């Protein structure tokens, strides 16, 4: 495909157009991903997550400036909980990144969650791959928020930075299990506010009691993004995490798990699409659906009948062969 060739040659317009195709879930997306697959795996993907108002956009902005000062090219994926075209409050925060828009080595793309509950739209991982294949040294992914369902970023990033603010102290207790599982680096932003030091101590105590892994001690960094305080220290911890995971072999293990999860998700999506496509073509399949809808049959029995249906399986095998 010509667009892919232009992407691999470093043309930003090709990158933008391919991302649009991925977001629209065009029929040629699988072929696009196949063509770039041998060129991915070189970017350091950094997930930035935290509750609304924690200062994620400001921190992304400051980190981008540091990476650019070190000669690194940067891709930014900013996830908007509504739409990338509304210019709402979340996208209003992107104004803080405007200094980078004229930098040809920084590519910024806003994406809508499109109903995803895990902080990232389903297509985000493909967009990360496109930026990786394009040659971005760093890909910063700013997610919608943080909570018990914030697992998508773990399946996409090499390093996950969780940003909190002093006012979130009480909330930490209710979501600490999820936080401890996903964070590679903690940030207490807006550290000039009351309670920041206490919150950092509380986080460090929790981490000490329930260490994530033996090979990496999750740091807690106090920052003031708007005043550019603590950003250098945060950058050092992110770089160090990437070095340690690479040298210990844990980065390779993490990426293996991510690829496994992606394969299973892709299979699940294909099977679901095929079942939905055949619902109104296959009488037996439709009958199962109607019985479940009416409460006459449990979904487990119906599922067993569908998956054991020779007609359905033969049709499925034939269509796979044709693809």
Q: What can you tell me about this protein's structure?
A:
The protein has a 7-stranded parallel sheet, sandwiched between helices. The radius of gyration is 22 Å and the shape is globular. With 323 residues, the protein is α/β, with parallel strands linked by helices. Helix 2 runs antiparallel to helix 6, helix 4 (56-69) packs across helix 9 and helix 7 packs across helix 8. The chain folds into 2 domains: 39-250, P-loop containing nucleotide triphosphate hydrolases (Rossmann fold, 3-Layer(aba) Sandwich), CATH 3.40.50; 258-322, no CATH class. The protein is built from 13 helices and 7 strands. Residues 83-90 have low confidence and may be disordered.
Percent helix, as a range, is 40-55%
Radius of gyration: 22 Å
Strand content: 5-15%
Question: Which architecture of the largest domain does the CATH hierarchy give at level 2?
Answer: 3-Layer(aba) Sandwich
Segments where pLDDT lies below 50 for 5+ residues? Answer: 83-90
Total number of beta strands: 7
Q: What sequence of helices (H) and strands (E) makes up the elements?
A: HHHEHEHEHEEHEHEHHHHH
CATH fold annotation of the largest domain: Rossmann fold
Mean pLDDT score, rounded? 83
Question: Which strand order spans the largest sheet, edge to edge or round the barrel?
Answer: 3-2-4-1-5-6-7
Q: What general form does the structure show?
A: globular
Euclidean distance between termini CA atoms:
18 Å
CATH C-level class of the largest domain: Alpha Beta
CATH superfamily of the largest domain: P-loop containing nucleotide triphosphate hydrolases
Indicate the structural class.
alpha/beta
**Tally of contiguous helical segments:** 13
Largest sheet: 7 strands, parallel
Question: How many independent structural domains?
Answer: 2
